[in-house]
Amino acid sequence: MADPLPSGLLEACVVVGPSNDQIKEVYESFLQENGSPLPLLDPEVLQVHAPPFVTKGSVNEPGVGNFSRTQRRFSFIKKKNDRHLALAGKAKEETTEDVSVPKDLDLVALPQLCFPGGLQVSQKQQEEQFHFLVFTDVFGNQSHGVVLQYYKPVQERMLKHNGHQRLSKLPRLYSAYGICIISKHPYYNALKDCLSSLLGRLKTCQNTDMEQEVKEFSAKLALVPTPPPGQLHVMFTLRPVTIVLPSKEDKNHPVIDLDLHLPFLCFGSRELLQIISSILTEQRMVFFSSDWAKLTLIAECFMLYIRPLRWQHPLVPTLSRQMLDFVMAPTPFLMGCHLSHYDEVAMETGDLILINIDEGKVVSSDYHDVDLPEAPQTAAECFKRRRKGLQLHYDLEVLHQGICRDVNELRMQRRRWQNKLNGDIQNITLELIVNMFRDVADHLNYEHRVFNTDEFLKTREPGDQPFYKTVLETHIFHSFLKDRLNGKFDTFTRMEQSTRTEDQKWKASLDFYRRRTVKEMALKNGRPDTGLNKRLGTSLPNLGEETNPSVLRHMSPTKIFPEMPLTTSAKPVKMFKLIDFPPPLSYPHVCHYFGDLVLQLNKAISATPPHDSNLLARYHYLRGLVNMLNSKRLDALSDFQNLYKTDMEIFPEELVRVLVDSLQTEEKAQAERRSELRWLISKVKNNDKSKRVESDGRVKKFELPKSPMQLEEFVKCTQESGIVRDVGAIQRLFEALAVGEPKQIDPEMFRVFYTFWKETEAEAQDLFLPDEVMERLDSRERVYKLSSSVNTSYGVGKIAVTQKRLFLVTTGRPGYVEITKFRDIEEVKISAAPFLLLRIPSLKIKNRLKKEIFEANLKSECELWNLMVKEMWAGRIMADNHKDPQYVQQALTNVLLMDAVVSCLQIQKPILAASKLAYYERLRHEAPMIIPKPTAETLKHKINPSQNMRSLQSVDVLLYTPGQLTFSADLDGNPKLWCALSCGKVVVFDAVSWSLLQNCIDLGDSQLNCMMGLDQEHLWIGSQDSVIYIINTRSMLCHKQLTEHRGEVTDFALEKLSHRPSHAQVYSCSADGTVIVWDVPSLRVKRRVHLTCDRLQSIQVHDTVWCCARDCVMELRQNGCLLRKISLLEDVKTKASAFSRITLHMERKQIWTSFTDSAELYIFESSDPTKPPKRVTLPDCCGVTCMIRVKDQVWIGCSSGVTGLSKVVGKIFVLDSESLAVEKELEAHEDCVRTLFSAEDRYVLSGSARLDGKIAIWRVD
């Protein structure tokens, strides 16, 4: 059975108060015992009003949605006879009817929560009061309530019934009543405003009219649609109050309609941090206040402070006096009760965190041995500094302004100030959470979903460890880890990435095995800001070093990033004002009201410019909700389907699923006749049937093995431990450690190896280098290995290894002596140095730039150091030859593994085992790589986009987007490299530092075929699944989808109609021969053409439209009419089976064509393609895979036959377009070249297939 469709703002409105019998009894007692105190009464449910208030079948039955005092199976039984007449003794036959009540509404506990301090009867009129409630069901779903308590005099007819004739002389009593509005959305301020407007009418209406007044009020709220996520708010009027429903920031973020600075007014910084720490460590907490209204609002503020982390335990911020035993619960909870119960709770229950809101104090109920949790010091200090900059008092903010006479304008002004302050507080508390948990990702293994708790704790400061030890065991933290492992791109991820330093970005892309950089050493040791720091700040390695700043740096000026302020300017907000409410209990009037709302939204959509797709999406979403409230399900589905073209980020998946399930038979038949609805319904059903099989969601802690491991188990265990990720290195490690037969690793052996590895990392963290040494090193260098003190030809000292060099730290007076950079080594060998009658093994290193040879008497360590230095030397040669710094990192991995193997193996010659790890040294001797001069001169850099993947991926598509000249706080102005991988994911690199900006934009499992940068904010990606995905380059999320193609999308072409970016149209083609022309601003289909061909695979626009299929090349007019067609020539068919690519060079009137399985190129004349083409044969080529024009050159990527010892499979040929001569033959990759892209005609980027999986950057002459 389908779930019920959600209603509007209102879930239910409940009236609570004393029964007439109770009032009668109290009044009679009061008259008999004049002056005696009035007792507290037990409140009861008097009325319940819940939607739907009118239905199509209830035109003549306006009583739908009424009340009773008995809950039975989520319905109420309402007595038809008049309640007051019954009390007067006029008995009538009773009939009953079932009236729907929300199934999640607990009407048993609600009266107590509406009167948590008890229901009072008073001799004087009392002021009305508000307080707030939160209801949580067993699944964790929340509803929110706002309660109005007001007093009204006891009914006169009751007194007359008691026989008193002179009513005016009798004493009067006033009884309290409560009205509770319940909503699925936390609109605390808005619902309070709604009740305030109702209060005025209740004071003036007769008692007999109160029920009808409340019912009409409730029915009006049920007509209010809630705003969609984003910057569109909904406004409506309940006279005399204008009420605003703010939207939530995004669909994963809650609505914020309360004053987030309230806790800042109640508590100092230390107490705020203690409360946040108590929540994060899942303590048992009780809030106290003498004002019931404070309890829920303060608790809700703290729930928002810890976002995106989520409290997952009981949350009952308001406990009635009958519910105090709840605080005896043994599990973590957050509860609240009146201050008068403070001593009782503190005395009866131990191990509680008691939070006194009125006095701003936080204490423990155990006065002796329990310490309050303290936040990590560095994060706490930052929070305290940020808090000082907040302006928390509105009156101080508006002292300079004049008085506003319009009450609603005054309220709007106050709301704008509050929204800005709320945004500042959210940023400050989010920064606190980010600072606490920024380093968590460094200890996660994404492939095996493992978090290394012990290693994370070792990196924490000693004073912070009690906090982290507790937090790591909580449900909150476990859920947070699952979100990180699932790649959730939430507010934490956005802030963490946007506040990374350049060093942190660089560090994220390489493995460093917990070694500190020289810069980090200086900061840890508290070095002053001296020449050392200046040296560290100016040390920028060039492309030959590991860090490799961009070869494209000069394309945009060097940008100095200012310190990022956390205060953000308020985003522009659009208000949608609802029309005046109709008579809410009349079905025809309600239908007419919804129709007028749709017309109003139609006008708003028509008035919105097409390029403002964000606002259009909100209007479509809101119109969908209105249509859904009006039971027009197909129109609602159509509106939600429009979100694919306007903003997919707010698409309500669950709501649409429920809507589809609720369709009637006739509606389903109508939907089948509408192609866009048929596609949407099919997608919803397919998602239900074949939702991706997610992992079990558990986050495992790393544990050492308990039984012998074969190779497969060893690979998994080593990856989980965080020692190394590379499968090839782990396999070589297995061969080194697996001594004897059978080939397996004993658990004790692994434990010894793991312990040594981690102890070495810990020692490296505490490594101290003198200032004289650090001044000579680059800021990003790290010391990976330090020898014992040895005698050398440069003096006595310790030999240190970094990723760049060997140097000697001299003893006595500490000093620095450089031995050699690895790239400068000419020879490394072991010799025997004479000592008395002995000959001691020594290591000799010859530097090609120095005459003298360095010699070190390393004794028993000599063979190990010989292996390590040679491996680093070989890795450095490979890195320089291939312009790929990862070779150095991999060589470092091998060196560290050698060191660990030699130290833990208890065999006679462990060096033989360690030699199995000398991969690059062995490769250098077995298959020396000779890089041809053209390749060496043209190749500038290589990067690995699969560095965080489980295995290498094919690079299917590349796109370079240029940078911005101006700095923007919300837009990174650096150029970017977008890379589509064969797993259906896109990774993004900063094209200045080559650091990884976005690890993974997941677009499904289908192959991605093409990419096009439309402007600075949008990126189009065509997929094998026939969908065009549009990426927002700021949020790096897919926010639009175009679904008109029915075959896999293979290529794009952009045609600019003027110099303005919005005046453009895009051509997309799919393999089934369909060409669609898109209007860019509106994303509407302008034209659709179907071509008869064999797999349409590329399209280009140059006055006319050129399409390349496997069997032909076609030229089309703009309207789609075929002009000319070039088919495979007869003599070509014997050599090649299909065209692969075309490239237009219209300045030379050339059409370059290539073939999938031939080395020949055919160049046709564009003016007369019937003429015999010019032919070029590429040497050592099996087929062309990609081809682009760069200036007057044509770059061609292909696959070639492997000859001899060469591992090169992918080649790039550079041809001159005039002479058709091959200017360069570049040995590019170890697998075929899959894609080429030109970066502003300065550089060419090439991507290779899976066996190589790398991106190469080439210089253009």
TrEMBL record:
Listed Polar residues bias regions: 539-549
PROSITE patterns: DENN
GO terms of molecular function: guanyl-nucleotide exchange factor activity
Domain called UDENN: residue spans: 69-491
Pfam families listed in its UniProt record: DENN (PF02141), TPR_DENND3 (PF25570), uDENN (PF03456), WD40 (PF00400)
Span list, region Disordered: 525-549
Transmembrane feature ranges: none
Keyword entries, A-Z: Guanine-nucleotide releasing factor
A GO-annotated cellular component: cytoplasmic vesicle
Zinc-finger is among the record's keywords: no
Xref: PANTHER family: DENN DOMAIN-CONTAINING PROTEIN 3, DENN DOMAIN-CONTAINING PROTEIN 4
Record's protein name: DENN domain-containing protein 3
